[in-house]
Specification:
Oligomer: single chain
CATH topology of the largest domain: Rossmann fold
Helix content: 25-40%
Number of domains: 2
Strand order of the largest sheet: 1-2-4-3-5-6-7-8
CATH superfamily of the largest domain: Alpha/Beta hydrolase fold, catalytic domain
CATH architecture of the largest domain: 3-Layer(aba) Sandwich
Strand content: 15-25%
């Protein structure tokens, strides 16, 4: 049986980028794509579980994260360029064989888009936290500004280059501790209110956690802190700065369906789904995903693979086994 000690870290050249890739196991490839603010390390438990189920688990640091090079310009962090990176990585680790693709947060967005743009590369898709959204009639930042008005919203805060990364680079522990929380983590009152007229950034609006959730060990937090102290936060934030460009690039796929089997894992308390029920999520996605299974975990928040590690591992292994015909 494999353990985390068996995870191997290598450096690949992927589309001209020096790329850190974690791997464990042998067999058909299961490719894990992390979100923000994370790196390959978020998948360590799932990689071991999938490897012990007979797969070769692969998890890169995505461009601009961890020890993978950043892209030359903000505009390069668009869906076309990121999908090219993923496509080349699939070729290197799996050849012409499609992969079991697994994503969380921005990784889920990347995986939805990759599967729509390169359907032949994906045998099955397991995504977490972020559902497949319809392509809106107008650019996302326009809709967000109309919805939030003078209220602070982090994705709009991220739009101006140099601002959010300066805040987070100056206090990586502050932002990571404030984000890596469970729904029931007790917090101090935020120092800043909701209105953007107050100025200030995001950390002061989150409320300092009074304790660390049990799933976030000091060792894990130290790993993430070291990763972001080395890489900085700009690369990951640049993905958000391409929301409108991605909207434009995905227009040809607005009615496309994902025909491979899909597992969607989400915590019922994940703020991303805004209280949606399992039935509402099915209704939202089923027309574009004929083979959709949803697993909703009661009371679990956004960091589902860490907060509910055992349940997530069991669901992934069962999904992976069904894709390979294993009993």
């Amino acid at each position: 049986m494999y353990s985390q000690n068996d995870i191997n870290l290598e450096t690949f050249a992927v589309n001209g980028l020096r790329t850190r890739v974690a791997s464990i196991g042998t067999g058909p490839v299961a490719l894990f794509i992390h979100g923000w603010p994370e790196c390959w390390f978020t998948w360590r438990e799932q990689m071991v579980a999938i490897a012990n189920a007979g797969y070769r688990a692969i998890a890169p640091d995505m461009p601009g994260f961890g020890e993978t090079d950043g892209l030359p310009a903000i505009a390069d962090y668009n869906v076309a360029r990121i999908c090219e990176f993923m496509d080349e990585l699939v070729t290197q680790v799996s050849g012409d064989e499609p992969v079991l693709l697994i994503g969380h947060d921005w990784g889920a967005i990347n995986c939805w888009q990759f599967t729509l743009r390169h359907p032949h590369r994906v045998s099955r898709l397991a995504n977490m936290s972020v559902p497949l959204h319809p392509v809106a009639a107008r650019p996302p930042t326009t809709l967000l500004r109309e919805h939030f008005g003078d209220d602070f919203f982090y994705q709009l805060y991220f739009q101006k280059p140099g601002v959010a990364e300066a805040e987070f680079d100056a206090d990586p522990e502050g932002i990571l501790r404030a984000l890596y929380c469970s729904p029931d983590t007790p917090r101090d009152q935020p120092r800043l209110g909701r209105s953007i007229t107050e100025g200030g950034g995001w950390i002061g609006r989150l409320g300092k956690p009074r304790e660390q959730p049990a799933w976030l060990t000091e060792k894990a937090l130290a790993y993430y802190l070291n990763a972001y102290r080395d890489s900085g936060f700009a690369g990951g934030i640049n993905y958000y700065r391409n929301l409108d460009e991605n909207w434009r690039l995905m227009q040809p796929y607005r009615d496309a369906r994902i025909t491979c089997p899909v597992l969607f894992l989400v915590g019922s308390a994940d703020s991303v789904i805004r209280g949606a029920s399992e039935e509402q999520l099915v209704k939202r996605m089923a027309a574009r995903i004929p083979e959709l299974k949803i697993v909703m975990l009661p009371g679990i928040g956004h960091w589902v693979q860490s907060e509910a590690c055992t349940q997530v591992n069991e669901a992934l292994v069962a999904f992976a086994a069904s894709s390979s015909g294993r009993p």
